[in-house]
Amino acid sequence: MATSIYGDYIKSVIRTVKDWPEPGVNFRDITPVLQNSAAFRKLIDSFVHRYQELDIDAIAAVDARGFIIGAPLAYELGCSFVPVRKKGKLPFRTISETYSLEYGESTVELHSDAFQKGDRILLVDDLIATGGTMLAAARLIERSGGIIVETAAIIDLPELGGGDMIRAEGYSVFAACTFTEDE
């Protein structure tokens, strides 16, 4: 698993909220990074530095926190930005992918004309936990003709196995930083 050159700094700014949203959960709150202009710049720069020399046609970002890094990254890389939304949020013809959650299912959608066959796509989100959302988004992108260059996130929680699951499906994974449960 590759991590960012600014990973330790970004990690130090992320706030851990213990026992939220339920007892035993350590919530990794990225809002302090967003509120700190230097930290936010380093976060975006860590992605720009990684991808600036790659041939990327579009950034696909997962609803909604993936948009936070996806839009400025697309701007900096000079490529398009494509939102991967929760079901029912896109106004045009869509394709959808349903995936399993711990208790139930969820569905993500993409406009049917979002990509051209062979477009090279960087898929981003804020967090990799179990990997279900990222994999559903990757399947959508591939069904629409896109090629996943890499999957990327601000945070990876390796103990939850999502990064391993994504790699097992053949995708490369990058995270600005990682957290273990005891951190």
TrEMBL record:
Reaction(s) this enzyme catalyzes, per UniProt: AMP + diphosphate = 5-phospho-alpha-D-ribose 1-diphosphate + adenine
E.C. number(s) listed in UniProt: 2.4.2.7
GO MF, one example: adenine phosphoribosyltransferase activity
InterPro entries tied to this protein: Ade_phspho_trans (IPR005764), PRTase-like (IPR029057), PRTase_dom (IPR000836), UPRTase/APRTase (IPR050054)
Record Gene3D superfamilies: 3.40.50.2020
Chief subcellular location: cytoplasm
Family under the similarity heading: Belongs to the purine/pyrimidine phosphoribosyltransferase family.
Record-given protein name: Adenine phosphoribosyltransferase
Naturally occurring in which organism (per UniProt): Kushneria marisflavi
